[in-house]
Amino acid sequence: MIALDTNILVRYITTDDFQEWQLAAGLIEAEGQLCFLSNIVLCELVWVLRGKPYQFTRSQISEVLETMLATPVMEFENRSAVYQAWQRMKVGKADFSDYLITAISQQAQCSTTYSFNHKLIGEKGFQYPRTSDNTTDRNRSTN
Question: Least CB-packed of 82, 83, 88, 109 within 10 Å?
Answer without folding.
Answer: 109
